[in-house]
Amino acid sequence: MRFIITILLLSFGTVAHAKYQWFNSPEFWKNTPLDSELTISPAELDTCLIVASNRKIERDSMRYMTEQRDEGVIRYFFVYVNNGIWHVLPVNSLEAAIACLPNKTGLDWLIYTEGMGKTFVGDLDRGIRMAAYYKLNVLLLDYPSINTHKKSLGNYFFATRNANRAYHEFTPVLDTMKQLRLNGKLGPGCFTLFFHSMGNKVLMQLAKDDKALQPLNDTTWVNNLVLNSACVPQRHHRKWLDKVDFAKAIYIDYNPNDKTLYLAHLVSFRKQLGEKVKKPLTPKAYYFNFSKVVGDNHSNFLPLPGHTPVVDEAITYYRQVLHGNILMLANQTKYTPSTYDGIGWDIQPWDSTGQNISTAQK
Q1: Is the pLDDT of residue 18 over 90?
Q2: Rounded CA gap, 23 and 2, in Å?
Q3: 48: helix, coil or strand?
Q4: How far is CA 128 from CA 59, 197, 291, in A?
Q5: Is the pTM of this model over 0.85?
Q6: Span 8-25, average pLDDT
C-alpha cells in the first residue's frame, strides 16, 4: 500500500494546484507590494501582523521573497492591509515591527508557524486571517515550505528539510519575544505559541537541542503551547516534549482519521503525532481528539475559501486556547474522556441548542 501511494505521489504534476497558482500569480504579488515606508498612521490600520522570515530576498524581483532559505538570516516585516492592498514593510528589528502595531499592549499575542505548501504571500494570507478572525496580535514565523517547480513528493522532502532547520533562525526571535514580554513591553495579555502541521518540526528540533532550548526554558513566559495536527513522528514525542518548561499548558490536537497526515505516515513510514497518537504520553500535555467533529479534515482552525467549512465545536476550542485560556474540562457538554485508547479528550458534536449530541440522545 505504501509503495502504491508513493508511486501516486511521484506521478503527480507540480504542486501548483489552483490555490498555489493564485498565491504565486503576478496579480497576487502585485497586490502585495514591498514598501519603503509606512503609508498610513497606526490608528488607521485595519488588519496587520508581524512577520519573521528566513527566506532569501530579491528586492528587484516581483516575487521578492523567494523559495530558498537564507541560512542564519532572519528578516522582519510589518504587514498591513489598506484599501484592499497588502503592504509589506521591511524593518530593521522585531522591536521596530512591534512599534508599528496599533494595539501592541491591548491584545493577546499569537506566535504562529504554518505547515507545508506556503509561498510567502500564501503564508501572509493565513497570518492576516488569524489576526482578523481571532482578534490577536500575530507574529508569523515564515519559512520556505513549497518549491513551485517540484512535484508533490519532492515538495514533501523540501518542506521537511526547511522546517527541520528553521529553528536555528527562529530561536533568537522567540528569545527576543520572551525578553520583551518579561520586561512588560507587550502588555498584560496572554501569549500562545501555535504550530500547525509540518510547522511542528520547528518546535521538535528546538526541543531536542538543549543549547537552543535553555534560554527559552528558564522561566514560564507562554500561556499555551499548541501542537496542532502535528506532522512529526509520534514515537518518542514524550522525550522531547517533557523538556519544554516555558509554557504553562501544552495542547496536542490530533485526529486518527486525518487524511493529510495519513499520507505523511505512508511516505515517512511513521505514525504522526497529529494522527495516530500512542502511549507513553507526556503528563505535561492535554490531548484532544477532533475526529468526532471534523471527519478526516486536517486544518480546522480557520475559515478558508475553497476549504471544508470549519465547525463551531472546533472554533470554540481554538478561541479558548489561542487566547491563552485553560479549557474547562469538567464541562462534558463539549469534552469527554476519549474513546480513542483513552488518550486525552474527545471534542463532542453539539445539537442546535449547543448540547452534547450523545448526551441529548440518551
Answers
A1: no
A2: 31
A3: strand
A4: 22, 18, 27
A5: yes
A6: 55
Tell which phi-psi region holds residue 124, choosing left (phi > 0), alpha (psi between -120 and 50) or beta: alpha
Burial track 55-83 (b if 16+ CB lie within 10 A, e otherwise): bbbeeeeebbbbbebeeeebbbbbbbbee
Cβ-contact 233, 272 below 8 angstroms: yes
pLDDT at residue 17 is higher than 90: no
Going by their DSSP bridges, the two strands 109-113 and 85-91 should be labelled as unpaired
Say what the pLDDT of residue 4 is.
54
DSSP assignment of 251-294? EEEE-TT-HHHHHHHHHHTS-BTTTS--SSPPTTEEEEE-HHHH
Asked if residue 256 lies in contact with residue 269, where contact means CB atoms within 8 angstroms, the answer is no
| 110 in Cβ contact with 192 (< 8 Å) | yes
Report the chain's mean pLDDT, rounded to a whole number: 91
Please count the other Cβ atoms lying within 10 Å of the Cβ belonging to residue 282. Answer: 16
Residue 136 has pLDDT above 90, yes or no: yes
**Chain length of the chain:** 362
Where are the alpha helices (H) located in 12-143, listed in sequence order?
18-23, 26-30, 94-99, 120-134
Spatial contact of 110 and 134, defined as CB atoms under 8 Å apart? yes
Amino acid at 87: H
For 312-348, what is each residue's pLDDT tens digit?
A: 999 999 999 999 998 888 777 899 999 999 999 999 9
Alpha carbon distance 16, 24 (integer Å): 9
Contact 224, 244 (CB under 8 A): no
